[in-house]
Specification:
There is one protein chain. With 189 residues, the chain is mostly helical. It contains nine helices and no strands. Helix 1 crosses helix 6, helix 5 runs antiparallel to helix 7 and helix 8 runs antiparallel to helix 9. The N and C termini lie far apart (58 Å).
């Protein structure tokens, strides 16, 4: 029987409660009902668990974001939908976001076991959703005076900051309106 979901759930719970450093493989094994060797058989080390959580979170956000952009009638509506999907995701998946914020996966990932190409691809695909919406907005005269890729990075950085903010403030939906106001004012022709 595959114990991976139970191991990941236990790891998320423990990291949220105790932090990454204080969480041990033995703690994860005990909470998930397996022995430490089983956990190590799946992951080799604790940092790899973090990578799987980070990769799955990126994948889930990308999948929801792509679906949300279908049928958008303007680049502004596309960006609004993308921001709202992200905010909804972090509000409905607080454990994943807290794990990522507390453990800073970019500093801990064991890329010898899990190549970073997939992780980078997911990040770049997500960024492309914003870049293409901004390029559309420039062509249709919704936006002016911005470089699309740079502007997309700014939006995504703001959203990532909201994910980090979630560690101390569990109501972040009001920040979506702030980002959308920023986009409307900064990108306006």
């Amino acid at each position: 029987m595959d114990k991976l979901p139970e191991i990941l759930r236990a790891a998320k719970d423990l990291i949220v409660r105790n932090g990454f450093e204080a969480t041990t493989i033995q703690d994860i094994a005990k909470q998930s009902g397996v022995d430490a060797e089983t956990v190590l058989g799946y992951f080799q080390k604790k940092e790899n668990i973090l990578f799987i959580i980070a990769r799955q979170t990126r994948y889930d956000i990308l999948k929801l974001s792509k679906a949300a952009t279908v049928g958008a009638k303007s680049p502004v509506e596309t960006i609004q939908r993308l921001v709202k999907v992200y905010i909804n995701y972090i509000e409905n998946n607080t454990d994943e976001m807290i794990v990522l914020a507390k453990a800073d996966p970019s500093l801990r990932l064991d890329l010898s076991r899990f190549p970073n190409k997939e992780y980078d691809f997911l990040r770049d695909e997500y960024l492309y959703l914003y870049t293409s919406a901004i390029e559309w907005g420039i062509r249709e005269k919704y936006f002016a005076g911005i470089e699309p890729h740079h502007a997309a990075k700014v939006i995504v950085s703001l959203l990532n900051g909201i994910g980090t903010q979630l560690c101390t403030d569990f109501t972040v939906s009001y920040l979506a309106d702030e980002i959308l106001t920023f986009v409307a004012k900064r990108f306006a022709p």
